[in-house]
Structures are given as C-alpha cells and as structure tokens.
Amino acid sequence: MAASDVQTTTTAPRATSNRSTLPSASAFQQYIGSGWADREDVTPPARAQAVFAAARRAALSALHPGKRLVVPAGAAKVRSNDTDYPFRAHSAFSWLTGWGADAEPDAVLVLEPTATGHDATLYFRERAGRDSDEFYSNPQIGEFWIGARPSLAQVAADLALATAGIAGAAGVVASADADTLVVREADPGVTAAVDGARGEAADLAGDAQLARDLSELRLVKDAYELAEMRAAVAATQRGFEDVIRALPRAVEHARGERVVEGVFYTRARGDGNAVGYDTIAAAGSHACILHWTRNDGAVKPGELILIDAGIEVESLYTADITRTLPIDGTFTDPQRLVYETVREAADAAFAVARPGIRFREVHAAAMAVIAKRTAEWGLLPVTAEEALEADQQQHRRYMVHGTSHHLGIDVHDCAAARREMYHDGVLEPGMVFTIEPGLYFQPDDLTVPERLRGIGVRIEDDVVVTEDGVENLSAGIPRTADEVEAWMASLRP
User: Fold this and answer.
1) pTM for this one?
2) Strands 108-113 and 118-124
3) Is 401 a catalytic residue?
4) Per-residue pLDDT tens for 316-340?
5) Catalytic residue among 19, 269, 291, 492
6) Any catalytic annotation for residue 317?
7) Helix 256-271 crosses helix 223-252 at what angle (to 10 degrees)?
8) pLDDT of 315 strictly over 90
C-alpha cells in the first residue's frame, strides 16, 4: 500500500473543475515559496494528560501481548462539497494519545509489540514547507487555508509520544498479519487496507475484543478525566444560566427554541470545544419527544421547556445535563406535580447508588417510583407491583428510556463494553454516569388526565461513584421545583 493511499482512502474527493483554479505558473510557484520570515518552532512541555494517556496505553498493552494494535483517528468529512465538518478524532484514539480537539485528521496510533509490552508511535501528516505547493494549494491541510499546523517534534513533546510522518503508516498497514488488530469503525479506509493485507488471516474476533477492551478500560475514570468532567459540568451550568437570562428573548421569537439552542452553543464555544451532542430545547409538548433536536418551536409563557444539553471541553469530555424549566418562572400545579415526581424518582436512584450494587439497580429504584405514582394517579390497568413485573411494565409507557448511561469522552461512553460489565456490572469508585428519570405525557394520550397531557419532564444529573455513594457533579444546578423557581428569579431582570 502506497503512502498516499493511507492519506486519501477515507477522504471524499471534492469537485473543483467548475470552480476558479489555483495559480500554477512556475513564476508564481517560485515567488510564493520565497520571502518568508524564519518560523520559530517552540517545543511545548508535555500536556497534563500525557502521563495518564501513557498509563492507559500500558493497560491496553497488557491485554494484548504480542499483538500489533492500530488505532486510527479517522478522517475529516466533507460538508456541502466545500468545507469539512468539524473534525473530532475517534474517542479511543483521543483516550490513548491525549490528543483532543486539536488532533490531526488521518493520524494513526500504532502499538508495536515488544518483548516487554508495546512501543507506541503516532503517525500523522507532517506540515509541508512553504516551498511546497501543498502550502497554498491544499484546502484540507495547506496552511494558507487552515492556518499553522504542528511539527512532528512539537506533537512528540506535547503528547510525550514518539511521532513519525504519515508515510510510515503505509508500511505498518502493508505488513499487517494475523497478529494485527485494528479499531474497525475509526477509519473505514485504514480498516479496509488492514483487512486487505491480512487477507484470510484477519482476526475479526480480535478486532471486536480490542473495541470491547477499549470501552471497558474507560468504565473507571482516572484523576485527569474526573477533573475534565468537573470542568465540563461547570461550563454547562453557566450555559444554563445564560439560557434562563435569554428566555424573555426566546419568548419574543417565533422559533424561540432556536434562540435557546444558540445561546447555549455560544457558551459551549466560548468555554469549551463545542456541544457534546445536539442540544434538545423542547418547549411545550415537544418535551414529550425524547430526542427533539429540530428546535424550531415557540417558547410560550405558562409552558415548560426541557433543555438537555452538555458542553464538551477541549479534551473532548462532555457533560450531559437536563433541566425542565417553567418558561415564565413559576410551575403550575400539574407541572409541579409531574416535576416533583420525577425528582422523587431521581432521588430514589441517588439513594441506592454506591459501590457494590449492580448498575441496573439504579434504574430499578427510579422505576419503582414511576410505577407507584402512575398507579396512584389511575393511569395503569394494573397495580404498581404488577407493573414492575418483567412481563408487564405498563408504567414504561410514560418513560421508555433508561435511567442511566456511562458518561465521559463520549456522551454514551463505553458502549462496546459487555453487558456483564455495563448493565449488569458492579459499580466501582471512579465510574461516571447519568441519573435521568422522566415522565412524558403525550398530548393525545387518552390514558392520561387532560390536565397532564402535553407535559414532559426530565431531570438529569452527572454523578461519580465514591467510596461510599455517589457525588452529584451537577449539584450546583438547582433541582427541586422551589430551587428552580428561585434560581430563575435570581437570573432574570
């Protein structure tokens, strides 16, 4: 496999024949390549995450002795035949290298087996000199187009990791054999090339095990990750405060949900890298649509707005918080009833969460409250006890989603972990997950009293397991109905 193949197999071509052409005259090329001031290449100190990334690589190495491990960053994806979508490296790549929002597309981390473990090398496309036509003619990586790019030496110092030019990755891929494993979904082009080199010796089961191990190793967060999670939650709290201040403006706009989304995004870009996922700004009955991301509805006084949003910091760790707010600052009696019931369910989940219990028990505790209250309100055709039986579950009509998911460098973190390590897994100190029960009464649901129809409430917090319970990382964001009303009153003119 040629070096150029590693660089281009995952990048969609751009149609350029009908656009203005770049200058190519030899006199121009000579002129543009000269007359530049010397560039001072400052070698940075190793970033704080480097030592943690090295420990993560060592943990992965211990699980795969004698295996070459190929972990691509992935490629940029073209948007509208001109620009690229914002690049986000594959989470496993970022976790193992410490390279976050500043990672280079098409990079590949390779762990080469040795007698004592693995040697790690980060291959990426080094920057071109100003005497190269790439400098001005390549809109994907040319510095005339996208700005200065780091050198091999700078990245090696920054990440405390050996680096090499992307051309070297071609030799790694070409020599792939039965002892080579690849993170398959990270970069389809690299995966296809590895498969081509391995042929019938391809170890697809080994690839799956590699993905599984990378998820399971992330179930317990290290000290750096916990600090980044705290920073993401703190930024998200500021974003929610911005939204509350902007609610009067949202009310005045025909698509006020977009105002809410935009205000939160401004905070995300100012205090972090971006949003960790598409913001849900669901006003009125839109709150009954679990993943409402169109955000094109009106924001009306007297209704609720459910905001599910999280800020992703530069290291790519993200918060995931939901608050349901009365748009005019005060809950009506039916809204308060539903809201406080959801909080009761959340509190029940908090009460059982501690080291040694099964992850699924957090959900069960919340569901016991949901079943009890919906039965008391006459919504169920059976008793609460009957509804909780595995072959019944009528109460789930009003909350079809789960109560918790792991959280970290992905908003739904550790997704490739085995069920016995995740859903049926035992809680350990350092695990981070959400607690997010809800109640959603669709506007046309005839099993629900009319006064409750169209009300959707979710309360979501991010927690870390401690030695004797859980710490609510988002405790600074008010949760009770009274606290929410006071919070909103303090922030609005």
Assistant:
1) 0.94
2) antiparallel
3) yes
4) 999 999 999 999 999 999 999 999 9
5) 291
6) no
7) 150
8) yes
